[in-house]
Specification:
Jelly Rolls, 2 helices, 4% helix, elongated
Length: 503
């Protein structure tokens, strides 16, 4: 192998091979750049055996081409040019402190790093207390870098115990006042272990000693390659009613969770057995008459003095008793029995019921009786009706609300039209095919007819013609047939001027 610095000097030689496959007949000190891995290897004789060994434990990638020859090694800041570099030549890039090898991948020649730099994994953890749901709170381990993610252990309260997040470093176990049976220290430990063991926890393993009722935890760094941070889980206390859970990293800041007892719950750290002891005060039965302690009932309502229901009277709201012909159901609904009373007929001496004849005396839906005024003289009245839109030359039927009997004096139309008036609808239908200018057959129910020659023109009927309604029973309908004689489609207004006669 020739070694050349920037001033150009050299001496000695060994074989440098660039290929995907193992070189044949190597000698001690020969170099082999395994191009499919991007790894530089050296032929090494340890006195017992011969083997190719990696010059670096980093892995990479490459491929193609092979060379086996004496190689030039240059030391300079810039790529060597003299002699022209060949596959397998080595160049120590002195301004970077990196060894590069000349490599032909089949398409081009280039200098590649003999020892590729891989990104070193990063690790980091933090521990905190977080708010849960209901009566629970969470113990959270947050990873960063190559172990990024969140692992939660939920502390859930049961049987009157709640777990509260006091702050980011404190979980508080609280025993509710009053309640049912006793909750022992062993019950609390078993419940806490079941809660922790049943949850999800990444890179942390828990072991529960059911005999001694102790919980052991082991935290391991996640990720791969290059190792990571290790942690120790320890306990301690600063006060008599407190315990501290400490996550101690191999380096860096220790995270601590504080357990504090309150409301009759005592918490203590047992350093000899590495356990946290939780003792709760036995529940106390509430006592209405107690004035202190856990048995006292707070915010008791005031009980009013005894109440006596007064007897109802015309001036006093009170209670009544159910007498004859009355009943009351389970919902307090009072009812009068049907048929218990018969309304007598009214007379000059008896207060009772009356009937109205419906003519001279009427009664409405609200029970109001009205006496009709005496007869008056009728007056001539305009009775109107409007058709739907009628095409030129088309016929339409129209019913106008009028009188059962009347005298007709005038017919008015809003457009030029032929108008006929009948005693009933059957007569109107029978006359439907008669042409204008043809006299109707006597006795066929035609009362009157007329033809207007312009808009809003009236036809005077002189002398007046008597008409009537022939329905059975008799109604006030006046049956009209209208033929549009104008040049445009139009709704037609018809006015009949008449005098009501008889009933």
């Amino acid at each position: 192998m020739c070694i050349r610095d920037s001033s150009g000097s050299g001496g000695g030689s060994s074989s440098v091979t660039v290929s995907d496959t193992t070189p044949s007949n190597p000698s001690s000190g020969d170099l082999w750049y395994k191009s499919d891995e991007g790894q530089l290897k050296v032929w090494y004789q340890d006195g017992t055996s011969n083997q190719w060994v990696d010059t670096s434990n980093n892995a990479g990638g490459g491929g193609g081409g092979s060379s086996s020859s004496g190689a030039n090694v240059s030391v300079s800041d810039t790529p060597p040019t003299n002699p022209a570099p060949q596959s397998g030549d080595l160049w120590w890039k002195s301004n970077e402190g990196r060894l590069k090898i000349r490599y032909n991948d089949g398409d081009s020649n280039q200098w590649v790093d003999a020892f590729p730099i891989l990104d070193a994994p990063t690790y980091g953890y933090s521990i905190s207390a977080e708010q849960g749901t209901g009566t629970s709170s969470k113990f959270r381990l947050t990873g960063s870098g190559d172990v990024a993610g969140i692992d939660d252990i939920t502390f859930a309260g049961a049987d009157g115990i709640t777990v509260e997040r006091t702050d980011a470093n404190t979980l508080t176990f609280r025993q509710g006042a009053g309640g049912g049976g006793s909750y022992t220290d062993n019950d609390a430990k078993d419940a806490a272990s079941a809660m922790i063991l049943g949850g999800t926890h990444q890179n942390i393993s828990f072991t529960y000693d059911s005999t001694n009722r102790t919980l052991s935890a082991t935290a391991q760094a996640g990720g791969g390659g290059g190792g990571g941070t290790t942690y120790d889980l320890t306990g301690s206390n600063n006060t008599s009613n407190q315990a501290l859970l400490n996550l101690v990293p191999a380096s860096g800041t220790t995270d601590t969770i504080e357990f504090v007892g309150s409301n009759g719950t005592d918490i203590a750290w047992d350093s000899a057995n590495n356990k946290i002891t939780i003792n709760s005060t036995a529940p106390v039965q509430s006592d209405w008459n107690a004035t202190s302690g856990l048995a006292q009932i707070l915010n008791k309502p005031s009980i009013p003095s005894a109440y006596t229901l007064p007897t109802a009277s015309p001036s006093v709201l009170g209670g009544i008793k159910i007498g004859n012909n009355l009943t009351i159901d389970a919902n307090g609904v009072l009812s009068a029995n049907a048929g218990a009373y018969t309304l007598p007929t009214a007379s000059t001496t008896i207060l009772g019921g009356v009937k109205v004849d419906g003519t001279s005396i009427t009664i409405d839906g609200n029970g109001v009786i009205t006496a009709n005024a005496g007869s008056t003289s009728p007056s001539i009245t305009d009775l109107t009706g409007t058709t739907a839109s009628v095409a030129p030359g088309a016929t339409v039927d129209l019913n106008i609300s009028g009188y059962k009997g009347y005298v007709l004096y005038k017919i008015t139309s809003s457009v030029e039209a032929w108008i006929r008036i009948f005693v009933d609808d059957a007569s109107r239908q029978a006359d439907d095919t008669r042409s204008e200018g043809t006299d109707p057959i006597p006795g066929q129910g035609v009362i009157a007819e007329g033809r207007t020659s312009g808009s809003n023109q009236s036809i005077l009927v002189t002398p007046g013609v008597m008409g009537f309604n022939n329905d059975n029973p008799r109604t006030t309908a006046m049956y009209v047939s209208v033929v549009n004689r104008s040049n445009a489609s139009s709704a037609i207004d018809i006015t009949l001027t008449a005098l009501k006669i008889g009933e």
